[in-house]
Specification:
52% helix, Chloride channel 7, 21 strands, Cl-channel_core, membrane, Cl-channel/antiporter, repeat, 801 residues
């Protein structure tokens, strides 16, 4: 027979029933499918689910014609896009109703919304973990029954003969399970077929897939995957778990079920695509986490495979949902397998460590270090004084350490398997060593390791208490010296000592200390809490600690401890790194705008006049603009002469290169330039562009003209003058990373000429910044939420003031 070419496309319900129906509309406008040639005789259309195989392009004989009957062709071309899919409305519609609602909301209202997001993510992780647990237990129980029946049957007929009956039994059992799974998928909810990952990727990418996050889809998905796995098919339950998590997220985040027609009147603020898609990202990550026991893998899956929009807080919430999902699955499975001990102990660690105190101590550490840094900036600014201070701190540290060792009477037996590298006997008896000396006669890394892993009874509570208090103030004094140093290990050491002390005291106040976890676990939790309270790290620190322990079950306790320490610490003062960024006067742009900034518009943070350049500008004017320290911007708007119209944006570095190479109109006309300027000339000057003072321009050259059309950016981003402050943060937070690294840093604004006031963005010209041009007429922003790309289309402008 000749080769057979199959064309496959989604068929409509009418197609499934055998009617003519209407094919899937394509972007080329073809609405009606072409019919294949009519074959004699009757017959049915061969269909798989909602897919149809069509158009057998071969020469058929009359016999084959009569056998095959009439076939219908459904056109399909993978290069064409279907028109039945719509995009999600990801961006907020900032109309008057929305803005009025945002302005009425108080600061506490925004905080409650943020807490609600965390609660929803926790529910998503919990329910996804329960569904994964149900699937695992159901598969294990039903498959166990099936295999026992087949095993007994095989053993029975092995002795008497007739193993073919066992084969038939096995085939029948597998076929029944698979048939049930196929029936509920094909007849009830066809979108539940397959793993569901392609559909979820499309949803996260901004495409609205019909019925992909319905409750019916979830139910069919769960029972379908159970039947498929029990039926012995070469499939896994991991892919459907991702889909199931996404469906759970879409339902929980809305506070109602349209399928059950039940509205709980909860989470009404989240009933829009902007919020819903973020929660679906968390659900997909929770599904991956429940399927593989890999919370970090779940976060990376959502980041890599699907979500087009991302921010720092979303990462943390998704990781929280993933950790809850893993913990829930492990906890209930451990109860099912009658081994709940480890997880219960970890829960006890969470409830008893009181990580809020670590947030308070972290805030105290940061505040003391802030005052010390202010003192250093004012009085210890000379190099000689900085060196003297560093030497003084080193001498005081050694003196304090020796004094504490000298007066300590904490003597511990030196066993044959001791791990101390430099055991010091001092006033202890033979065969013993001074425990206080162990904490100081080691590098900080080794001291942290010993606090984590040493056996109970290695340290005296008084020793740990004195060491924690002393090392706390020494580390606070040390950070900020004119030396290369970090705060990670000192913070971990302080927290580990405090955590081990807490574990020892907890065991001593109870009659049976065995009900609590070992002191090493408390040292681990305390170390994480102390470091989180100082630097306010969350996701990365959780991953670091989990990888250091090699046990993912510690992930949830560590994460909850870090969250508590961060929340408590942020209530009093910022993190240590943020404090030092402010002290250095760096214009750092955070991910989110202030909670109550919706009432601010772009016009309220603009200043004027704007320094502009014409498309063909005099060299002297350019030199004067670049030399003027009061307009020391990094980018300049290019406008047309006469009625000013925004044409583009050109950078200071570009102008300097043009001046350096004498790219003047007169020289180009007289052919005095040796060659045309190329992009390589700009790259060769990067990154240390010469200052304008080093560029020599004669008096005659100042009268020359420079054509900027070839070198300016003709499509700069602009912002409407009535744009809300949060919308500006959306632009600045998600797009001006490009501008910042290019050196421009500011976008165009509309209505009239103005510029962002210094300090409003990260490029308020602490190091760089450009003028903002407000054009008179609005600029169309063609936004495709599926691609998350802006296509600015600048309209003609009538002038500027």
């Amino acid at each position: 027979m000749a080769n057979i070419t199959k064309k496959v496309s989604w068929s409509s319900r009418a197609d499934e029933s055998g009617g003519t129906g209407e094919g899937t509309p394509l972007l080329n406008g073809s609405g009606q499918p072409r019919l294949s040639r009519q074959l004699s005789g009757g017959g049915s259309v061969f269909q798989i689910g909602r897919l149809s195989t069509v158009d057998l392009e071969e020469e058929m004989s009359s016999e084959e014609d009569s056998l095959r009957g009439r076939l219908k062709e459904i056109p399909h071309n993978e290069k064409l896009l279907s028109l039945k899919f719509e995009s999600l409305d990801y961006d907020n519609i900032e109309n008057q109703l929305f803005l009025e609602e945002e302005r009425r909301m108080s600061y506490m209202g925004f905080r409650c919304l943020e807490i609600s997001r965390w609660v929803v993510c926790g529910l998503i992780g919990f329910l996804t973990g329960l569904i994964a647990c149900f699937i695992d237990i159901a598969v294990e129980e039903i498959a166990g029954i099936k295999y026992r029946v087949v095993k007994e049957n095989i053993e029975k007929f092995t002795e008497v003969g007739g193993l073919s009956i066992s084969l038939i039994l096995w085939v029948v059992l597998n076929s029944v399970f698979v048939m049930v799974g196929a029936i509920i998928v094909a007849c009830i909810e066809p979108i539940a077929a397959g793993s569901g990952i392609p559909q979820i990727k499309c949803y996260l990418n901004g495409v609205k897939i019909p019925r992909v996050v319905r409750l019916k889809t979830l139910v069919v998905k769960v029972f379908g995957v159970i039947c498929s796995v029990v039926g012995g098919l070469a499939v896994g339950k991991e892919g459907p778990m991702i889909h199931s998590g996404a469906v759970v997220a879409a339902g929980v985040s809305q506070g109602r079920s349209t399928s059950l027609k039940k509205d709980l009147k909860m989470f009404e603020y989240f009933r829009r695509d902007t919020e819903k898609r973020d929660f679906v990202s968390a659900g997909a990550a929770a599904g991956v986490s429940a399927a593989f026991g890999a919370p970090v893998g779940g976060v990376l899956f959502s980041l890599e495979e699907g979500a087009s929009f991302w921010n720092q807080m979303l990462t943390w919430r998704i990781f929280f949902a993933s950790m809850i999902s893993t913990f829930t699955l492990n906890f209930f499975l451990s109860i099912y397998h009658k081994k709940p001990g480890d997880d219960v102990r970890n829960v006890c660690v969470i409830n008893l460590v009181f990580p809020a105190s670590r947030g308070l101590l972290g805030a105290l550490f940061n505040k003391l270090n802030y005052w010390l840094t202010i003192f250093r900036i004012r009085y210890v600014h000379r190099p000689c004084l900085q060196v003297i201070e560093a030497v003084l701190v080193a001498a005081v540290t050694a003196t304090v350490s020796f004094t504490m060792i000298y007066f300590s009477n904490d003597c511990q037996p030196l066993g044959p398997d001791h791990t101390e590298e430099y055991p010091l006997q001092l006033f202890c008896a033979d065969g013993e060593y001074n425990s206080m000396a162990t904490t100081f006669f080691n590098t900080p890394e080794r001291s942290v390791r010993s606090l984590f892993h040493n056996q109970p009874g290695t340290y005296n509570p008084l020793t740990l208490g004195l060491f924690t208090l002393t090392y706390f103030f020494l580390a606070c004094w040390t950070y900020g010296l004119a030396v290369s140093a970090g705060v990670f290990i000192p913070s971990l050491l302080i927290g580990a000592a405090w955590g081990r002390l807490f574990g020892i005291l907890l065991a001593s106040i109870t009659s049976t200390g065995s009900i609590w976890a070992g002191p090493g676990k408390y040292a681990l939790i305390g170390a994480a809490a102390q470091l989180g309270g100082i630097v306010r790290m969350t996701l990365s620190l959780t991953v670091i600690m989990v990888e250091a322990t090699g046990n993912v079950t510690f992930g949830l306790p560590i994460m909850l401890v870090l969250m508590t320490a961060k929340i408590v610490g942020d209530y009093f003062v910022e993190g240590l790194y943020d404090i030092h960024i402010k002290l250095q006067s760096v214009p750092f742009l955070h991910w989110d705008a202030p909670a109550t900034s919706h009432w601010l518009t772009a016009r309220e943070v603009m200043s004027s006049p704007v320094t502009c350049l014409n498309r063909i500008e005099k060299v002297g004017t350019i030199v004067d603009v670049l030399s003027n320290t009061s307009t020391n911007h990094n980018g300049f708007a290019v406008v047309t002469q006469g009625p000013a119209k925004l044409c583009g944006l050109i950078l200071r570095s570009q102008l300097i290169v043009l001046l350096k190479h004498k790219v003047f109109v007169e020289l180009a006309r007289s052919r005095l330039t040796l060659r045309k300027l190329q992009l390589k000339d700009f790259r060769d000057a990067y990154p240390r562009f010469p200052p304008i003072q080093s560029i020599h321009v004669s008096q005659d050259e100042r009268e020359c003209m420079m054509d900027l059309n070839e070198f300016m950016n003709a499509t700069p981003y602009t912002v409407p003058q009535v744009a809300a402050r949060t919308q500006e943060f959306f632009f600045l937070g998600h797009f001006t990373f490009l501008f910042f690294f290019l050196g421009c840093g500011r976008t165009g604004d509309q209505e009239r000429l103005g510029q962002i006031s210094p300090g409003q963005t990260r490029t308020g010209r602490a190091s760089a910044g450009s003028d903002i041009v407000r054009t008179h007429r609005p600029m169309n922003m063609n936004y495709d939420p599926c691609e998350a790309v802006f296509y600015p289309d600048v309209q003609p402008h009538e002038g500027h003031r």
